[in-house]
Design brief:
This protein has helices spanning 9-12, 15-21, 24-29, 115-127, 184-194, 232-246, 252-259, 261-283, 296-317, 324-335, 337-346, 389-392, 399-423, 430-460, 470-492, 498-512, 514-521; strands at 39-53, 57-69, 75-88, 97-100, 105-110, 131-132, 138-143, 152-154, 162-166, 170-174, 203-210, 216-224, 230-231, 291-292, 357-358, 369-372, 375-378. It is of the alpha+beta class and 522 residues long. This is Trehalose synthase.
């Protein structure tokens, strides 16, 4: 691709205008676009670089600022890495924008799954060639391993980033929402491999956007593609669908123990994997790793975060219409609001008993576990992608990861309930379906927590709170997760809003439970 830029001069001179014409509805269809419930007021080109050019197409690395208005009327800005490929006189349903340049009509497309873009990145990575952006900033490639590629295709579009499968067992992961710093997914995966934890992907190389003034953004990385059966979310949905077919009308909990021995075995192995990951992370004393003793400021931080997010959730819920069962859940939460605030404030007295803080996964759930024939692989260590990297790279309690898995079991149960309800399948009535799936989530959660705690206690019991305090402290981390989920669902997936609301209520019940409250006075 050595053709001169003159072939696309007319297009490049109108880049600012063309970015504004990118179709909002097309952008909001992308899984990685995180402001689906917000109104896009404007789009502005922040910076761009030409990665490759030919007579029929040009590949551009664009950084685009999206200005949007939230449900509450607040105006916000998010910057996205938006690689595009522009083709002459080529249009189909995936076209994001069309520009008529007079002599030629250009079609603008998302480039991440286009083999020309992937070849271009691979060439830049292997050559070590730095690419200059219009602003003077640079795209810098860093190669760790040396391989070759030939073709590409899109993986399922469930990620908050973009995943493109290469022919030689590799994935290009594109970090869409730009955040200042080294992405934790890259950093954590690399360090775990380096220190002998091999249940993660290997990394071939990565790309940084460097403004030359101390600000860097991680744009993408080439990592190992793991041959897997499916992720544990997919596996669990299929499993639960079959479980419902077997239900014989017996006691829910007894039925789960009798019929879910194989899944319980899987959960014990997963608990062991996560415990071993935390133990390994606690032993790394390089860079921003190692173990810290949490103090009152750390506890204040999570409590203040819960309170702030809870109040934000209340704002989002105003003037909205909900179904009867959701309205009932909201009323129950509002009735217990003062008790909830008092209970989480009381947990401050437990700050000496929180265990240790270390680098953790940060956004652990069933989709982050790939099931192989002989085990599992942990993926996506970037933490919660809506938060800044400085926050995602902090040390935290390993109970945050435990809470993430617990919430994911709950989500899996209700996802199957909604699927059963929507498909109108015959058999047991919906109330029994919901109760059975809730019983399954409770049993699986108990097995997971017990297995995890026992394994940690065998190696380094000080990493987590002891038995006397763990229920109350774990409830705090589950509440933090459930409130965060509720904000996401009310903005992006209202039909699932019920799931985190029920999670919040369960946490309130645990925090106000007599056995938990005794901890505060003990």
């Amino acid at each position: 691709m050595h053709i001169g830029e003159g072939d696309f001069d007319g297009f490049l001179s109108k880049m600012d205008y063309i970015v504004k014409t990118i179709k909002d509805d097309k952008v909001q269809e992308f899984r990685w676009f995180q402001e689906k419930a917000s109104y896009i007021k404007d789009k502005m080109l922040f910076d761009y670089a030409i990665l490759g050019i030919d007579r029929s197409f040009i590949i551009i690395a664009a950084l685009i600022d999206f200005i949007f208005e939230t449900i509450s009327g607040e105006e916000k800005k998010s910057r996205y890495y938006f690689p595009i490929i522009v083709r002459k006189n080529s249009f189909d349903d995936s076209c994001l924008a069309i520009y008529d340049g007079g002599d030629c009509v250009y079609g603008v497309y998302d480039a991440v799954d286009d083999v020309e873009y992937i070849r271009c990145l691979d060439d830049i990575l292997r050559s070590g060639r730095k690419i200059e952006f219009k602003s003077g900033s640079r795209l810098k490639p860093y190669m760790i391993l040396n391989h070759d590629i030939y073709s590409s295709k899109r993986l399922n579009n469930k990620s908050s980033n973009s995943l493109t499968l290469l022919s030689k067992n590799e994935i290009v992961k594109t970090f869409r929402r730009m955040a200042n710093g080294m992405n934790p997914d890259l950093e954590m995966t690399y360090m775990l491999r380096k220190y002998g934890f091999h249940d993660v992907q290997d990394i071939r190389g990565y790309f940084l956007y460097d403004d030359g003034k101390g600000t860097i953004y991680t744009l993408s990385m080439f990592s190992q593609y793991i041959e897997n059966v499916e992720d544990m979310w997919q596996y669990t949905q299929k499993y639960l669908k079959e479980l419902l077919k077997k239900y014989d009308g017996s006691d829910f909990v007894s039925f789960v123990y009798k019929n879910c021995g194989d899944y319980i075995g899987e959960v014990k192995k997963i608990a062991e994997l996560i415990a071993n990951m935390h133990i390994k992370l606690s032993l790394i004393n390089e860079g921003n790793f190692g173990v810290l003793e949490p103090d009152e400021s750390n506890i204040d931080e999570i409590i203040n975060q819960i309170i702030s997010n809870f109040n934000l959730l209340l704002d989002y819920m105003k003037n909205q219409d909900y179904s009867g069962d959701v309205e009932s859940l909201i009323k129950e939460i509002m009735d217990d609001k003062n008790l909830l605030m008092e209970s989480i404030e009381n947990i401050k007295s437990l700050s000496p008993y929180f265990g240790k803080y270390l680098r953790c996964h940060g956004d652990l759930h069933l989709e982050q576990l790939l099931k192989k024939e002989d085990g599992y692989i942990l993926i996506d260590f970037e933490g919660e992608p809506t938060k800044p990297i400085s926050e995602r790279s902090r040390h935290m309690s390993p109970l945050k990861d435990v809470a993430g898995m617990i919430r994911s079991f709950d989500y899996a149960a209700y996802s199957q309930f909604f699927a059963h309800k929507e498909n109108g399948e015959d058999g047991i009535d919906l109330e029994k379906v919901e109760n059975l799936l809730s019983a399954w989530a409770t049993v699986i959660t108990n097995v997971f927590v017990e297995s995890y705690v026992n394994l940690i206690d065998e190696h380094d019991a000080d990493l987590i709170p002891d038995e006397k305090y763990i229920t109350a402290i774990l409830a705090l981390f589950k509440l933090d997760k459930a409130v965060f989920e509720a904000i996401y669902e009310v903005n992006n997936r209202p039909s699932w809003f019920k799931i985190p609301l029920k999670g919040i209520i369960e946490c309130i019940d645990e925090l106000k439970n007599i056995s938990s409250l005794e901890v505060y006075n003990g």
